[in-house]
Design a protein that fits this description.
The protein is mostly beta strands. It contains no helices and 11 strands. The strands form 2 sheets. Strands 2, 4, 5, 6, 9, 10 and 11 form a 7-stranded mixed β-sheet that branches. The chain is globular.
């Protein structure tokens, strides 16, 4: 079982930056994909960005050019650097890890990001 702990959320003005961190513990050797999802009030949870152990990345179109996902395998940590934040980025951000063998997803508890206009 994998445990994920997020940090780094908060309140920021539009145009500002935040960096989210997510550290994995437990049975982590089989994690293949780590990523960030977000869920705004009244909306479905959506993929923001993800990164494979190979370093390959995927981004939602809405964050391309503004957000950067990175991974420190030695620290079992994934980061999401968010620049040029917009009010529409306001949401609870969740860390996600996928097991390569079972494809089971593990989720963090979520961290609130609020962007004021």
């Amino acid at each position: 079982q994998v445990q994920l702990v997020e940090s780094g959320g908060g309140l920021v003005q539009a145009g500002g930056s935040l960096r989210l961190s997510c550290t994995a513990s437990g049975i982590i050797f089989s994690i293949n994909i780590m990523g960030w999802y977000r869920q705004a009030p009244g909306k479905q949870r959506e993929l923001v960005a993800r990164i494979l152990t190979t370093g390959s990345t995927n981004y939602a179109d809405s964050v391309k050019g503004r957000f950067t996902i990175s991974r420190d395998n030695a620290k079992n940590t994934v980061y999401l650097q968010m620049n040029s934040l917009r009010p529409e980025d306001t949401a609870v951000y969740y860390c996600n890890a996928v097991d390569r063998s079972t494809t089971i997803s593990s989720w963090g508890q979520g961290t609130q990001v609020t962007v004021s206009s």
